[in-house]
Each structure stands twice: as C-alpha cells, then as structure tokens.
Amino acid sequence: MREIPETLNDIHVLVVDDQADVCRGLKRLIGTTGCQVGTASSGEEALAELRDSPFDIVITDIKMDGLSGIDLLHEINREWPEIEVVLITGYGTIDMAVSCLQNGASHFITKPFDNEDILTFVRRAGYRILARKQRLAGERQYRSPRIIAESPVMHAVLQQVEQVAPSGIPVVVQGKSGTGKELVARTIHNKSQVRDKPFLAINCAALPDSLLESELFGYKKGAFTGAHQDSPGLFQQADGGTIFLDEIASMSLSFQGKLLRVLEEKVVRPLGSTEDINVKFRLIVATNQSLQRLVEQDDFRQDLFYRLDVFKIQLPPLSERKACIPSLAEYFVERNAPDVLGEDIPIPEISPAAMRALEAHHWPGNIRELENTIKRALVVCRGDTILPAHLGFEKANG
After folding, report:
1. What is the pLDDT of residues 122-150, one digit of tens each?
2. Integer Cα distance of 9 and 28 in angstroms
3. Is the dihedral of CA 349, 354, 357, 363 positive or negative?
4. DSSP state, 320?
C-alpha cells in the first residue's frame, strides 16, 4: 500500500463549544489527523478567531449562550462561504439535521458523537479542501503561463509542445520535482484546440485512493459520510477540456485499473451510482519516475502504460539548462516582488555577482528552488540591489 503524505497539517480546524471538556476532547481527537486545531468557548469568541486567523473547518455546538451554533453558521456563510461547518448537538432530530444542511452546514452530528464519524468527515473535508486550494493556486500561478527557454534543450521542449498541442493525444511529461511539469501541461492546453475549455489539475500523490476517486469520478448523495448532495468529478467537469494528473506513478495498481477503464470506454461511474456517464477530455500526466521502469518492476500496469505512452516530453533539470537561469531569476523577481515587498516598493535588480552565484549553484530543487531563493532574497534585501549575501547560499560564488 502506498503511503499518504501528511498534508493535513495545512488544514486549520476551529472547535466551538461552551463546555471546556468537549473542546479539549475534540482538539485531541482531531489533532490525530495532523490538522491544526483551535478552540473557542462561544460563538462570539469564534467570530473573533475567524476574523483574526484563517480556518478551513468549523465544528460547533448548536446550543450555546449568546450566539448559537445556527447563528454562527449564518455568519460564516455570509463572511466565509468557503469554510465547511459541522454542527453538533445533544438535541438532534431529523428535521433539525435537514434544516442545518439546507442552511449551508456540511455535516450534522448528535451527542454522544462517534469519534470515527468526526475523524472521517475531517479527513475527507481536509483532503477535499487541499485539492481545491491546489487547483486555485495553480490557476493563479499559471493564468498566463510562459516557458522560458534560453537553452537548446528547452528550445527542443518548446518544439515538442507546439507539435503535440493541437493533436489531443495523451502526453506524458517526465522530469524531476520542480522542473515545471505543470507549466508545460498548461502550455499544451493553452495552445490546443480546447483552450477555451477547463484545465483541471490534481496531485495523485496528495490524496488516498478513496478521496482521489471521489475527486475524479464524483459521487452521489449518501455515497459516504458527508456526501449530502451529488457532486460531479473532475472527469465530468473537464467537459471537453484537459485533465492533468500529477505524480501518476503514486497511483495504486487497483486505481490504475479504474483509470484504464475510463480511458478505454470514455465513461465514469460516480461513487454510489449505478449508471455510467459519458465523458470527454484530453489527458496529460506527469511523473518524476520512469513509467517503463515501474512497469518492469510490476509497480505500474503495462496496459495503462501503453495507453498513456503516446507522446513523451522529458524535462531536463535546471542544472542542464543554466542558460535559462538569468531570465528565470529576473522573471521571478518581477513576479514576486509586489507580493513580498508591496506594490509601491521599487523592484530590486540582481547584481552581476549575485547572478554569477545563481548560475554557479547546482540547484537540486530545480526551478522551484530558484524561485524560493529569489523570494528569500527579496525578503532580506534592504536596498535596490540583490547581492550574493542575500541568496542564502553557504558560500556565494564570485
């Protein structure tokens, strides 16, 4: 069984209850998922916490003095509609549960509550929120994608992108972590005949099979705990556009079989449904491993490999395209300076010595490491010039 990364430490949960022992118990329980958990003893305190810090999930008692859980739900729906709210009560009825769900709650639990029910919801909601954040971040970062190619090897990559983009055939983008695989995938989409259709990306390594299946295939109401309404998966949402599956090599063999069926039959069956739905999309996948080698090791299905291995683009590490470093570095300064320094602060220049240091560095983390280095330099730079000392290298060059 493949390991699931501990990604839920980026999920922030607020527990709201006027009973201190309940808050403490839920904080310990939910903390076992890796989530960051805060507490509030009243609805008013919860609102203050929400205005002071970002939260993804709120778990609140309904019956509290002052601002009730229902009132808190309404305030959250008005100010932070993206937050998922769970209501807990010792006075639950079917009618109350239906009313809460109709008013925007994601889940409803009655006391004494089942610990596993709460943990299941938090895990599912957490992974769902992470997937949504990832897609939104990708859309912001790559709204106007541009591959910087100043070396022969990258000119060859651009030529491959131009060749394959109009075709609609599957593409495998292979390269080490941080080399820009998603940017290449988005560029292929933006140069294709379906550029006006959605581009939807998901990191297969970040989700367990159950969550990956619900994200891609969708689900029917009641398919699992927390499934309070039908939800179309990414295969449906693509609607003739492009699906990008990052880190496809992390997908389990059993799930690979389900993906193969979708590619062969062009249908999906949402979780909890008995009917197939026709889908149409262009598939681009990315991997930092050789799929051929994984097939030989029986870690990747041979039939799926031959379905995918139609056109492969190999991205070189940054150490093999150092001619791109000056343009990349200047691009990252321009892109990140407004966020790091502020809109009204002049954008610093990279000194010749700092540029030589950047070109001499090995860059094991590739382009992602380069961008992070530039961000750090912008933070510590106090003037209008980035110097070697601002780069954070143990021994700056030149």
Report:
1. 888 887 787 777 666 655 554 445 788 88
2. 14
3. negative
4. G
Pairwise CA distance, residues 203 & 199, whole Å? 14
Question: What number of other Cβ atoms are within 10 A of residue 366's Cβ?
Answer: 20
Cβ-based neighbour number of residue 273 at 10 Å: 15
Q: 4 near 208, Cβ under 8 Å?
A: yes
**Which strands form 312-314's sheet, in the order they lie side by side?**
199-203, 242-246, 282-287, 171-174, 312-314
Residue type, 398: G
User: Tokens 């609140």, residue?
Assistant: 60
Quote the CA–CA distance of 309 and 314 in Å, as a whole number.
Answer: 12
Angle at 70 between CA 64 and CA 71, to 5 degrees: 85
Element (H, E) at 269: none
Backbone angles phi, psi at 146, to 5 degrees: -145, 120
Reported pTM? 0.68
Which of 193, 177, 194, 183 lies closest to 149, judged by CA?
A: 183
Q: In the block, which residue shows the tokens 């055939």?
A: 169
148-191: per-residue pLDDT in tens? 888 899 999 999 999 999 999 999 999 999 999 999 999 999 99
Q: In 3-state terms, what secondary structure has residue 314?
A: strand
